[in-house]
Known about the structure:
It is a single chain. The protein is of the alpha+beta class. It is built from 6 helices and 6 strands, in the order E-H-H-H-E-H-E-E-H-H-E-E. Strands 4-5-2-1-3-6 form a 6-stranded antiparallel beta sheet. The radius of gyration is 15 Å and the shape is globular. The chain starts with a strand and ends with a strand.
Amino acid sequence: MEGYYHASCLDYKIGDNVKDYYGTIIKDRRFYTFNDQNHSQYLREMIFEKVRLKSFPNLPSRLDSIYMCLNETDSISYAKQLNYIVYEVEFMESHGNILKADMSWIDYSLRKSYEELEDIAYKYFSGQSTDRPFWEFLFDGEVKAKRVIRGPF
């Protein structure tokens, strides 16, 4: 089924506004000072944001967007990795920016130098794909939960 689907650890009811939870967590000092893995994730996101602001300022930020997949299958695949719930979502407003990006770049960014991370972030925001793309859509407007698909897994 075509539409937009969001995987989340949050328990939404039909009609609830979906929140940009990921960015809120990443920017929370309690998250990034908790352990080295969280700190690395925080630094990567800050580098990605710096590249976005410099080269793609009109595109949605990874830190202030709703993450979605274009089909139910991809969303369920992602949700299973994190034991998340999958929702079909709908846009609440016609304005807002949307970005189609290959989430696989995030996996490729592990243990890279600062310069390599900048290059990967540029590829991510410019819409380039890896050899095994997993497409995600970032939207900086408001969406609401339309239907609970399934989960947590």
